[in-house]
Amino acid sequence: MPLLVLFGLAMLYIGWALSAPWRQRRRRERWAARPFPAAWRTVLRRRVPMFARLPPDLQLQLKRHMQVFLAEKAFIGCGGLRVTDEMRVVIAAQACLLLLNRAPDPFPTLRQILVYPGAFVVDRVRTEAGAVQREERQVLSGESWSQGQVVLSWQDTLAGAAIADDGRNVVIHEFAHQLDQEKGYASGAPYLDSARDYARWSRVLAAEYARLQQRGPGEPGLLSDYAATDPAEFFAVATEVFFEQGELLAQESPALYGELSRFYRVDPASWDGRRPVAPLAAPPAPGAGVF
């Protein structure tokens, strides 16, 4: 093959590769611009009461994000489950809450959502004192993997969607982990805009995390005891509460609410048309950051 032809083919390939982001953006724009199916609107009304709480502009945004999400992500039924459009829409609606007021780039490292009929069992190897390894079996409602997969229980997904203000939502929880894991591991600190943002995030969340760990077992509070497991779980649990009990979180932990509001670019405390929340308190003084 003549050298000139090889050079031309190489340049065509380079041009095609360099145009990949542009082509992806155009595809997403076309998906987002499609009419939202009437059957999907029915599912939102019946199964996702959180949708009705959103202001009209955010409802429109959510539907557009959902259309891109559903076009790009693969859903796989497990344990004999056949995935239906209703399942896909309910999961996408809750996951895409985390993408509001952002460019349509839905969870770039995520490839698949695995759905079980109910809670599923996983085997884990736990390292104890003295480097002793012990196998243990856990029953889970959801799990997020840094390799590009989220695993969900459909029963728990439905239950989490049905009550929009209890601060418990397995889809929001696991997709918060996905945002945290975009860098390859979960630490409780997702990608932020600047070093200054990271410093403030670390101060605020470390202080709130320490306060939670000092709370006695079973002592009442918005964040569950599970949030004290590690910084990654703290971020995921706090995200559930932020979206479902925003006004209460803003009152109880205004600095934490402020950080989550800046990161997620939404103000759930205002979604129910209540009076605006009090001004956000200043972040706590610098301390030992664990996020």
UniProtKB/TrEMBL annotation:
List the GO molecular function terms.
aminopeptidase activity; metallopeptidase activity
**InterPro entries reported for this sequence:** MetalloPept_cat_dom_sf (IPR024079), MtfA_fam (IPR010384), MtfA_N (IPR042252)
What GO cellular component term, any one, is given?
cytosol
| Alphabetical list of Pfam families matching this protein | Peptidase_M90
Taxonomic superkingdom? Bacteria
Q: What is this protein called?
A: Zinc-dependent peptidase
Organism encoding this protein: Caldimonas brevitalea
